[in-house]
Design goal:
The protein has 115 residues and is mainly α. It is 53% helix and 9% strand. The longest helix is centred in the N-terminal third of the chain and has 15 residues, at 15-29.
Length: 115
């Protein structure tokens, strides 16, 4: 049997790291700071809705996305998997199942996590 897991939000809560990166750069690109009250609101939004909510110009999207990806990758070694998920993965391994991780995150970023 093969098991496929999504990485972001299933194995690790990378949303918090994205928020930290966005908070760090908001003043450089003149978009709204994401305060603690905004976090759950943003978590429920699509990417397009977040961009609109933060007041990011469509012309800024490519440069901001590039910056976020770079900063995110630099900090990826800080990312931890959800508590207890290592036991799940060990159980999968002991059962002899094949495990695949599917993610919109880059292979480079995933290789920086100790799973």
């Amino acid at each position: 049997m093969v098991l496929i897991f999504d990485f972001d939000g299933t194995i690790a809560d990378t949303f918090k790291l994205y928020i930290d990166v966005m908070r760090k750069i908001h003043h450089e690109y003149n978009f709204k700071y994401i305060d603690n009250d905004d976090i759950e609101l943003c978590r429920a939004m699509t990417a397009k809705e977040i961009i609109q909510y933060l007041g990011i110009s469509p012309l800024q999207i490519p440069i901001i996305a590039h910056r976020i990806r770079g900063d995110f990758t630099q900090r990826m070694t800080e990312q931890k998997i959800f508590t207890g998920f290592d036991s799940v993965l060990e159980g999968v391994k002991q059962e002899g199942r094949r495990l695949f991780i599917l993610s919109s995150n880059s292979e480079e970023n995933l290789s920086l996590i100790h799973i």
